[in-house]
Specification:
Elements lengths: L7 E5 L3 H13 L4 E5 L2 H10 L4 E5 L7 H10 L8 E5 L4 H10 L3 E4 L4 H12 L3
Helix pairs in contact: 2-3
Length: about 130
């Protein structure tokens, strides 16, 4: 199955530079429909308003973290199947285990490059 490059992707991060980096990498891979939110609360409002095909979210944000966002998405029957990839500087095994238990599809440890992002997207979505 080939991934639709027009799929709706939501990038969530409170650090604007990181949002731009991820957006640029996604665009280089051919994705065209990318939106952004500055924290978990803003992302949740967008998710409730429209359908997304993938969420790439930072883990550490205020007032709502990426982990809290993940749990909220998984608890919502309308959105529980949206693939979620968490981006984090934390590589502690207990954090990764907690994210897996909460239903994360994958995670990316910062810093990362285009190859790592593509590898995680393929693991989550399939080839493109």
């Amino acid at each position: 199955m080939t991934v639709n490059k027009n799929m709706r992707i939501l990038v969530v991060d409170d650090f604007k530079t990181m949002v731009k980096i991820i957006e640029n990498l996604l665009r280089q891979m051919g994705f065209t429909t990318i939106e952004e939110a500055s924290n978990g609360q803003a992302a949740l409002a967008k998710i409730k308003a429209q359908k997304y095909d993938l969420i790439l979210s930072d883990w550490n944000m205020e007032p709502m973290s990426g982990m809290e966002l993940l749990k909220a998405v998984r608890a919502d029957p309308a959105n529980k199947n949206i693939p979620v990839i968490l981006v984090t500087a934390e590589s502690k095994p207990e954090n990764i285990a907690a994210a897996r238990q909460a239903g994360v599809n994958d995670y990316i440890i910062k810093p990362f490059n285009a190859a790592t992002l593509k590898e995680k997207l393929i693991a989550t979505l399939g080839s493109f």
